[in-house]
Specification:
66 residues, Lactate_DH/Glyco_Ohase_4_C, L-lactate dehydrogenase (NAD+) activity, L-lactate dehydrogenase B chain, 1 helix, 38% helix
Length: 66
């Protein structure tokens, strides 16, 4: 799921509806351009902290067959 033009496996806290099956829906709030830019900057900072963790948890990708 891509929200506010943030891509990748970065974990962010967003308002959502939960059920016994997990997240049912994420509330997409209207953001100004400034708020969106700040959100994206925060997501990038969080990703920079999380990336080394992912790199150590996941095995390296195998090369794709030609």
């Amino acid at each position: 799921m891509e929200l506010y033009d943030v891509e990748g496996d970065v974990f962010l806290s967003l308002p959502c509806s939960l059920s016994s099956q997990g997240v049912q829906r994420v509330a997409v709030l209207p953001l100004t351009d400034s708020e969106k830019a700040t959100f994206q900057k925060c997501a990038k900072s969080i990703w920079e902290v999380q990336k080394p963790i992912w790199d150590n948890l996941l095995p390296p990708s195998e090369p794709k067959a030609a």
